[in-house]
Amino acid sequence: MLFWRVKPLDDILATAERKALTRTLGAFQLTMLGIGAIIGTGIFVLTAEAATKAGPAMMISFVIAATVCALAALCYAEMASMIPVSGSAYTYSYGTMGELVAWIVGWALVLEYAIAASAVSVGWSGYMVRLVEEILNISIPTTFTNGPFDKTPGLINLPAMCIGLVCMLLLIVGTKESARFNTVLVCVKVAALALFIALAIPAMDSANFQPFAPNGFFAKNVVDPISGKMVTVGVAAAAASIFFAYVGFDAVSTAAEETINPQRNIPIGLIGSLAVCTIIYLLVAAGAIGAVGASPTGELASSKEALAYVLRAIGHGWAGDLVAIAAGIALPSVILMMMFGQTRIFFTMSRDGLLPSIFSKLHPRYGTPHVVTICTGLFVAVFAALFPVGALADISNSGTLFAFALVAIGVMILRRTQPGRTRHFRTPLVWVVAPLATVGCVFLFTQLSGYTELMFFGWAAIGLVVYWAYGYRKSHVAHPHLAPAE
């Protein structure tokens, strides 16, 4: 069953040409798209959660997560340069391990992209609500700013829902226009983090790094003294959570079909964006820990606007306000890219017959897959309205880690089965890098909470039911006569 209904790579490329998207993106735009997708809720919001789980040792957590992502990025770069079509890990799996695995990967990517977009929407809502409260000196009731599953339950997170719908409309208008908007927001985010680094690094105190790893390395369950609930802590558990801060670089690969000279520009966009963000993250984490400390029970760990809190704590209240404003303005770029990736994956699955053809229908004026964009936008808005950011981030990570592991395995399979195929980018030391990427993803998956892992397997089971009910019978690989004529 593993290699059942494998779609030849030449057929994948031919299918893309029959119903192709417009190529408008270059290397710079792709790198900016990658940075826009990566820098977001993970560093602006989840820094506090990492402090709760690992204390100052969250520095190691950032390095672990970055290392796993870097290994996966090298595998993604080879795949994307060799198969420059939309679909990301789904498409790569289809060409290496067959339709069933590809479907499971595509279904899991809903957790990575759509749920991640919901998580960032909730993070954006938190910054904006607190910013409005501070500026206007008012207290906004949680009824319309918290979902029913938050620690402080509300009715609906209205701001989070609205920002998801706004990003949906931007994507319908067009990829190029969305990329331009994204570039402006990326500049705002990078400027805010640069300001944080410039002010926090000089305020570092080595005493704030002690005790360095209060919860140890491996994940373990303890009772949260605030909520009284069992929580997963440890350096590895923090790495599994903070992994969300790096998710997004692979969204660049979903834009392969809309990229000029993808063989050259996709690897540049993937590796370039990840390298820039890793450096920024380590500097930000060092500044935050060194300036105020990162005790699991300290103020940083409990803050919902971690970076703004640090700046205010060291006497730069004006800078804290600016960082909060920048986060509120710029986080939509992450939502934009997560939704962009999701729509392109479902577009490709529809084009392959695994989802109804209406999902690959293009807008007559804008040339974008508007139907799937609307469906994705509504899905993102609903989850953002109901669930808290931490739960959404961990669920998103489960799907991401699964997809990354499959891409690494796919690279090794193609090196064996199709060694002569042109590779404009080759993963260096592939028989070291790819296995390490696979093992790293599996390790981080096992460090997630048991509840999160159960959610992932439950979602996968639902996906299998959908596949056997529709995709199995409508697949263009199994039933070529169902494919649209050229």
| Helix run count | 19
Q: Separation of termini? A: 30 Å
Main-sheet strand order equals 1-2
Number of strands: 2
What portion of residues is helical? 55-70%
Q: Using the CA coordinates, give the radius of gyration.
A: 21 Å
Q: Unreliable stretches, pLDDT < 50, 5 or more residues?
A: none
Largest sheet: 2 strands, antiparallel
Can you describe this structure in just a few lines?
The chain has 486 residues and is mainly alpha-helical. It has helices at 9-18, 27-38, 41-44, 47-54, 58-82, 88-94, 99-136, 158-173, 175-200, 235-242, 262-292, 299-302, 306-313, 317-330, 332-351, 370-386, 389-417, 430-446, 450-474; strands spanning 220-223, 230-233. 58% of the residues are buried.
